[in-house]
Amino acid sequence: ITFRAGTTNTKWAGIRVTDSSIDYNETAGSGSIISYAIIKDVMVYGSSAITAQNASPLIAYNDITNFHYYGINMTCQTGKIIHNVIHDGGTWALYVSGNVLVDDNEIYNIGYDQNIVITVQNGVTFTNNHVHDNIGVWSFRAGSNTVVENNTFNNTGHTCMRLGGDWEGTNNLTIRHNTF
Question: pTM to 2 decimals?
C-alpha cells in the first residue's frame, strides 16, 4: 500500500494516530498497526509521515521517504518502531519520546533542511539500528532514561552524537556496544 498525495500539486500531512486510536496489543496482535506500506511525499511544513500522539502503535516494515519535517514523530506511553527504512527526508527521521522500542531500522540521507537527524528521550530503547550517510550537523541526540545499544553509525555528518540538548539535564542515559 502506498500513502501519498493524490496529485503532484497536492500537499498532504501524513498518517496520524491519536489517543482515540486503539493501542497496539502485542499479545492479541491487534490495535493500531502501520506496516508494509510506502509512505511518501509528505511536504506540509511541520508535519510527519507518521505522527503518534498519546497513542501506542506498532510501526513496522515500512518504507518512509520524501518528507519535509519528520519521518516518525511519536510521543506516547508505549510503542514500537521496528524494521523500517527511513530515508531521503528534510529534518528529523525520528523524534521519539516515551517507553518506545526503536529496533532494526535503517536511516539514511536525512537532514538537508535541519541539524538533527534523530532525537530520542524519556524511556526510548534504540537498538540494532543502522544510521548512515546523513547530512545533519548532529546525527543523533539522546535525552534522559534512554538506552542506545548495538547500533551502527557511519558517515553521519559533523557530529555523530549529542547528549542532552534542550533538556535541563540528561540522567540515566545508557550508551553501549555501538559502532561509530
Answer: 0.91
The enclosing H or E element of 85 equals: strand 85-89
Q: Which helix (H) or strand (E) holds 40?
A: strand 38-42
**Cα–Cα separations (whole angstroms), residue 27 to 12, 31, 39, 139, 150:** 33, 11, 27, 34, 26
Residues pairing with 116 in the sheet: 138
User: How many angstroms separate the Cα of 56 from the Cα of each of 34, 69, 79?
Assistant: 11, 21, 5
Q: Residue type at 145?
A: N
The answer, yes or no, to whether residue 127 has pLDDT greater than 60, is yes
- Please report the pLDDT score of residue 118 as a whole number: 83
Nearest to 84 by CA among 58, 104, 68: 104
Indicate the burial class of 172 (C-beta count within 10 angstroms; 0-12, 13-18, 19 or more). Answer: exposed
**Taking 70 as the threshold, does the pLDDT of residue 152 lie above it?**
yes
Distance CA(45)–CA(69), nearest Å, equals 6
Burial of 49 (0-12, 13-18, 19+ CB in 10 A): buried
Give the span between the Cα atoms of 66 and 89, in whole angstroms. Answer: 5
